[in-house]
Amino acid sequence: MNKNINKLYMMGKADSRMIVGLMSGTSLDGLDVALCKISGCGLETRIELLEFATIPYTAFFKNQVKEVFAKKLASLEKVCLLNEWIGVFHGRLILDCLKKWGIRPEGVDLIASHGQTIYHAPTWLHQDDLFPNATLQIGDGDHIAVTTGIITLSDFRQKHLAAGGEGAPLAVYGDHLIFSKEGENRIMLNIGGIANFTFLPGNLDVSAIFSSDTGPGNTLMDSYVQQYFNTPYDKDSAIAKSGSLHEGLLAALTSHSFFQQPFPKTTGPELFNLEYLRFAQNESGTVTLNHEDVMRTLNRFTAVTIAQSILSCCDPNQPYSLYSSGGGMHNPLVMEQLGVLLPAFSFYTTNDLSIHPDAKEAVLFAILANETIAGNQLTFGNAQSGIPSVSMGKISFPD
């Protein structure tokens, strides 16, 4: 038997596993690295977040990825080169973190790498009947494994696609396993570049679990301030707060057919980008609107589409607790508006559930890896609900 296969076999039988979860989102802020100790599997999963760091990306890294990110036309050579380069780069960042934390690579069982999304193409967006849902993440798992010497699971989204999903959101799997609680209806809201949520029913009815993207999270706001204010993001909502809401522009932004499509659905910066904004400004006659007012309206756009999506899936006669995570939860104006738009909801963060809000997505990929190695087949839902019951992640050996 191959020694790595034997290692996986013994790992699956062990009481617990040390897994490094990685997340690199569409905001290109940096690489989230979460060192997790995970015991059990399925609904018996228990997780301890031992260490966490976000390694900010340099301007050089961001510019390299932006050459191919969310573009219909891009250099195939560049995509090829970045796939290998990002894998090695992420591997080195992992080693740097482990050294800083005083952990030898031999003490880590697995790496779970999300990779870097460069294009997301569900059928509703590409509208070519010849082709299925598709998505592409780069940052090759074999290069991570060889660089670190640690068995690596990567490319999680492809199995989800193959089983009938859209490749996202994948958070629903980990949300169900570690956050479901009897007697409490929970909304797990993650606001990254794109916002998504998972509904976890308090009656623990697996068939009622639900997850979907809602539309833009930070992506439009970040792109706008990067272009017009030379800053990576609107810190403390300062720019948006200094502007005024323009109802005509908001109406144009929310008029896209995406918002009328049934749930579940996924999207990305392939749709919600500055070109989308320019079209909405042309439609609403707001091309000369001052930048602060545009930012205030984009902020409202994010909050309104999140709230409307959640409300459309919730029973007004039931109580709900909303647990937020992701970079957008640090935007005070977005969160303030959500409180107004969802007055009956109790608001928390995943920190109240012992998971650092910024680490949540990296932790969830560690959980997916744990299920693939140690789990049994669980019923999460079905392909029609966007939650096929599958294990995910391609396995790369270091030698």
Overview of the structural elements:
Helices cover 38% and strands 21% of the residues. With 399 residues, it is α/β, with parallel strands linked by helices. The chain folds into two domains: 3-167 and 361-381 and 391-396, Nucleotidyltransferase, domain 5, CATH 3.30.420; 171-353, Nucleotidyltransferase, domain 5 (2-Layer Sandwich), CATH 3.30.420. Strands 1, 2, 3, 4, 5, 6 and 12 form a seven-stranded mixed beta sheet that branches. The longest helix has 26 residues, at 76-101. The two termini are 14 Å apart.
Tell me the CATH topology of the largest domain: Nucleotidyltransferase, domain 5
In one word, what is the shape? Answer: globular
The CATH architecture of the largest domain can be given as 2-Layer Sandwich
Mean pLDDT: 95
Major sheet details: 7 strands, mixed
Low-pLDDT residue spans: none
What is the H/E string?
HEEEHHEHEHEHHEEEHHHHHEHEHE
Q: What fraction of the residues are assigned to beta strands by DSSP?
A: 15-25%
| Distance separating the two termini | 14 Å
What's the β-strand tally?
A: 12
The percentage helix is 25-40%
Number of helical elements = 14
What is Rg?
21 Å
**For this structure, what is the CATH homologous superfamily of the largest domain?**
ATPase, nucleotide binding domain
List the domain count as a whole number: 2
Structural class: alpha/beta
The CATH C-level class name of the largest domain: Alpha Beta
